[in-house]
């Protein structure tokens, strides 16, 4: 039985792919075993080289070039520095050993037909390798000399403006730099990757061309998550990637067209035809560059950078090269002219390729069988016509065609038209019936339902069947599908709340909150300006602001989700009671959250923080609370208190509204208690202490809610089931 279930879940193709992958790994490991000395030497050389380069050159250069003036780098443990060097060395060792390992494994892989036995000329491989290295180098240089300095200056300035101390962990700061540099190096391979996929046909060029909007949206979305949110940094992130995507489309178009119809590409002919336009573009480029230098375009560009808050300034050609202004204007005009000529040449090369592509498309175009005019055919032609010509006809059209043949006196053609039409319709009906039968057979045994039934059977007293699981699955799909029409309202509200809160925190709200809260702490334990909290990671403050905005937005839309789910839940018999209770519940959540937050922010949190700080200062310690731990502690002592107050309020309202009765809450108290501990274990850091700190107050408030309901219902005698209250 297990084997059949496995066969239903894992198909034969997947099993073969897994087997091939396992065999490939085995071949590579055996090759490493046989040539272990070579691989080990390469690994050791890369390891030692990485350690010494990191110690003597890389780290001092990174600190000199990329560390902002307001920031410091600290070591949190005695082993941070040496472990960082070893990590970089291990990366270098693996990078040096993998090519050697693959070189020795190529023959065994070919012998087992795991990789194709394709002979590649060495100079071809060398060109591809040099292109990969060159593109990666360009990506890293762009990131190192332009993107990183601007980004780190912005992040440090944002932290200082929010009253935080940027004291980066050497491990987190260095890893952040290396991973971002690696992402730019990999992104720079986009032209090669898209060209290879298009040329090989794995992903057609037309897919990359038609889906460019999704690519641009993905680039900006990725940049929104992994780069600072100011517009200038977003442009610095997205612009080179979009240009790379355009260049990749250009290269892919040329490669695909050369593959499909090399003989039709006539670049020189297009250049001879359009030489005057190419030359005119160069002249206009020179004039534009000269005019831009003479009339202060560089200064206007710098004014625009200053307007958006950037500290970057672009020097003029004369300032950069130390030449007279007139010479600078000429050099700038010449540079723009060269760039314009290159752009024009690339454009007209694309024109030549596009002409060839149209010729190839016209040559490969096939007539549509469904577009055949049956009236123009004789009886023999109707007999030999493709089935698509009759499948495209309706019954009335077939009868009309046969009638026209009868009017022309061709009885044989008329009969053939009707016979062919009936054959095609009968075949289509049989295919539809067979497809319905296959779907019905597939519905009889669903591997997901059977697997879920087997799992649930182990935790229930009675046997759980596939019909039970299918019913639960149908109920869940029915309930969730009811949100589909309301998704715009839910997502819209979530985004508005999140963006508004994040915008307020980002544009000074976080700093105002920090200063106001620190002012509530007793003067004898108040920190110096920007002494703490500290940021151990360059984007730690931004990440906290995003997380806090998401949490508050999720709380804001929770009553809305329950309200919209109510009709579906009521139809399935999951809930009962008055739907209007949800509206009251939503308002009570806001009131209790606001009241609890005010109580915690004004009285509880300052006292707790002052006690913790005083205790540390009394022992002669240096306070360096990180922004994540400090801010989340304040959140728990303010908003968390409001959320705790919402627990008994929710219990009372649900009982009064007839949604969940007091008897049910009291009889099944273990379910919410276990759910609270499970959620605390999953959503809090990996610490048993933190789990209890979060879970125990929530359990206590649940017991408080039970106590309030006990008093309201007189021990369950007055509306304990919820019906009396509802009545």
UniProtKB/TrEMBL annotation:
<dbReference type="InterPro" id="IPR002033">
    <property type="entry name" value="TatC"/>
</dbReference>
<feature type="transmembrane region" description="Helical">
    <location>
        <begin position="581"/>
        <end position="604"/>
    </location>
</feature>
<dbReference type="GO" id="GO:0033281">
    <property type="term" value="C:TAT protein transport complex"/>
</dbReference>
<keyword id="KW-0472">Membrane</keyword>
<feature type="transmembrane region" description="Helical">
    <location>
        <begin position="82"/>
        <end position="103"/>
    </location>
</feature>
<feature type="transmembrane region" description="Helical">
    <location>
        <begin position="123"/>
        <end position="145"/>
    </location>
</feature>
<feature type="transmembrane region" description="Helical">
    <location>
        <begin position="235"/>
        <end position="256"/>
    </location>
</feature>
<dbReference type="GO" id="GO:0009977">
    <property type="term" value="F:proton motive force dependent protein transmembrane transporter activity"/>
</dbReference>
<dbReference type="GO" id="GO:0065002">
    <property type="term" value="P:intracellular protein transmembrane transport"/>
</dbReference>
<feature type="transmembrane region" description="Helical">
    <location>
        <begin position="329"/>
        <end position="353"/>
    </location>
</feature>
<dbReference type="InterPro" id="IPR011532">
    <property type="entry name" value="TatC_arc"/>
</dbReference>
<feature type="transmembrane region" description="Helical">
    <location>
        <begin position="212"/>
        <end position="229"/>
    </location>
</feature>
<feature type="compositionally biased region" description="Acidic residues">
    <location>
        <begin position="432"/>
        <end position="442"/>
    </location>
</feature>
<feature type="transmembrane region" description="Helical">
    <location>
        <begin position="689"/>
        <end position="713"/>
    </location>
</feature>
<protein>
    <submittedName>
        <fullName>Sec-independent protein translocase protein TatC</fullName>
    </submittedName>
</protein>
<feature type="transmembrane region" description="Helical">
    <location>
        <begin position="176"/>
        <end position="200"/>
    </location>
</feature>
<feature type="transmembrane region" description="Helical">
    <location>
        <begin position="630"/>
        <end position="655"/>
    </location>
</feature>
<feature type="transmembrane region" description="Helical">
    <location>
        <begin position="487"/>
        <end position="507"/>
    </location>
</feature>
<feature type="transmembrane region" description="Helical">
    <location>
        <begin position="277"/>
        <end position="298"/>
    </location>
</feature>
<dbReference type="Pfam" id="PF00902">
    <property type="entry name" value="TatC"/>
</dbReference>
<feature type="transmembrane region" description="Helical">
    <location>
        <begin position="548"/>
        <end position="569"/>
    </location>
</feature>
<feature type="transmembrane region" description="Helical">
    <location>
        <begin position="39"/>
        <end position="58"/>
    </location>
</feature>
<keyword id="KW-1133">Transmembrane helix</keyword>
<feature type="region of interest" description="Disordered">
    <location>
        <begin position="432"/>
        <end position="451"/>
    </location>
</feature>
<keyword id="KW-0812">Transmembrane</keyword>
<feature type="transmembrane region" description="Helical">
    <location>
        <begin position="667"/>
        <end position="683"/>
    </location>
</feature>
<dbReference type="GO" id="GO:0043953">
    <property type="term" value="P:protein transport by the Tat complex"/>
</dbReference>
């Amino acid at each position: 039985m297990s084997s059949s279930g496995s066969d239903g879940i894992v198909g034969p193709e997947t099993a073969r792919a897994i087997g091939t992958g396992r065999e490939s790994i085995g071949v590579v490991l055996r090759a490493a075993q046989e040539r272990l000395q070579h691989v080990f030497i390469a690994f050791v050389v890369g390891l030692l080289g990485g350690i010494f380069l990191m110690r003597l050159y890389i780290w001092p250069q990174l600190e000199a070039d990329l560390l902002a003036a307001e920031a410091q780098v600290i070591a949190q443990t005695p082993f941070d520095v040496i472990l960082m060097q070893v990590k970089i060395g291990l990366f270098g060792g693996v990078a040096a050993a993998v090519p050697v390992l693959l070189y020795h494994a190529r023959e065994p892989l070919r012998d087992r037909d795991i990789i194709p036995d394709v002979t590649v000329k060495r100079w071809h491989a060398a060109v591809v390798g040099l292109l990969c290295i060159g593109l990666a180098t360009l990506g890293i240089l762009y990131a190192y000399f332009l993107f990183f300095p601007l980004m780190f200056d912005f992040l440090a300035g944002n932290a200082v403006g929010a009253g935080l101390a940027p004291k980066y962990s050497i491990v987190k700061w260095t890893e952040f730099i290396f991973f971002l540099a690696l992402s730019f190096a990999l992104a720079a391979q986009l032209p090669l990757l898209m060209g290879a996929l298009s040329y090989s046909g794995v992903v057609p060029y037309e897919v990359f061309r038609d889906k460019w909007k999704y690519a641009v949206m993905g680039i900006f979305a990725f940049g929104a998550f992994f780069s600072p949110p100011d517009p200038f940094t977003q442009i610095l992130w997205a612009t080179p990637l979009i240009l790379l995507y355009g260049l990749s489309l250009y290269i892919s178009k040329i490669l695909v067209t050369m593959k499909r119809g090399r003989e039709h590409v006539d670049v020189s002919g297009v250049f001879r035809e359009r030489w005057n336009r190419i030359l005119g573009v160069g002249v206009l480029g020179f004039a534009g560059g000269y005019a831009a230098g003479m009339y202060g375009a560089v200064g206007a560009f710098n004014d625009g950078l200053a307007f958006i808050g950037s500290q970057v300034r672009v020097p003029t050609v004369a300032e950069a090269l130390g030449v007279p202004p007139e010479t600078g204007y000429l050099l700038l005009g010449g540079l723009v002219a060269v760039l314009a000529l290159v752009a024009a040449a690339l454009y007209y090369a694309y024109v030549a390729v596009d002409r060839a592509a149209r010729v190839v498309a016209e040559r490969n175009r096939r007539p549509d069988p469904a577009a055949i005019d049956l009236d123009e055919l004789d009886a023999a032609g109707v007999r030999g016509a493709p089935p698509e010509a009759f499948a495209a006809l309706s019954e009335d059209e077939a009868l009309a065609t046969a009638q026209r043949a009868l009017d022309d006196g061709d009885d044989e053609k008329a009969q053939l038209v009707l016979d062919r039409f009936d054959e095609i319709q009968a075949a289509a009906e049989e295919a539809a019936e067979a497809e319905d039968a296959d779907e019905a057979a597939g519905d009889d045994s669903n591997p997901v339902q059977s697997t879920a039934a087997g799992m649930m059977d182990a935790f229930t007293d009675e046997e759980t069947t596939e019909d039970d699981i299918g019913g639960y699955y149908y109920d869940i799909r029915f309930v969730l599908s009811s949100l589909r029409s309301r998704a715009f309202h839910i997502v819209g509200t979530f985004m508005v709340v999140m963006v508004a809160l994040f915008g307020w925190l980002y544009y000074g709200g976080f700093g105002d909150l920090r200063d106001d809260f620190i002012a509530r702490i007793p003067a004898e334990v108040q920190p110096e300006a920007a002494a703490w909290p500290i940021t151990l990671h360059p984007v730690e403050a931004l990440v906290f602001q995003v997380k806090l905005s998401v949490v508050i937005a999720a709380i804001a839309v929770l009553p809305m989700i329950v309200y919209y789910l109510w009709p579906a839940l009521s139809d399935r018999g999951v809930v009962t009671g008055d739907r209007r209770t949800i509206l009251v519940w939503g308002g009570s959540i806001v009131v209790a959250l606001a009241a609890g937050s005010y109580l915690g922010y004004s009285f509880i949190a300052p006292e707790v923080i002052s006690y913790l700080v005083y205790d540390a200062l009394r022992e002669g310690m240096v306070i360096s609370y990180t922004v994540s731990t400090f801010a989340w502690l304040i959140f728990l002592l303010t908003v968390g208190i409001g959320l705790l107050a919402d627990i008994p309020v929710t219990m009372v309202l649900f009982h009064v509204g007839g949604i969940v009765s007091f008897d049910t809450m009291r009889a099944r108290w273990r379910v919410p208690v276990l759910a609270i501990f499970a959620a605390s274990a999953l959503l809090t850091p990996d610490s048993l202490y933190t789990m209890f700190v979060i879970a125990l107050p929530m359990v206590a408030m649940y017991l408080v809610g039970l106590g309030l309901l006990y008093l309201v219902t007189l021990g369950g005698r007055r509306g304990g089931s919820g019906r009396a209250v509802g009545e």
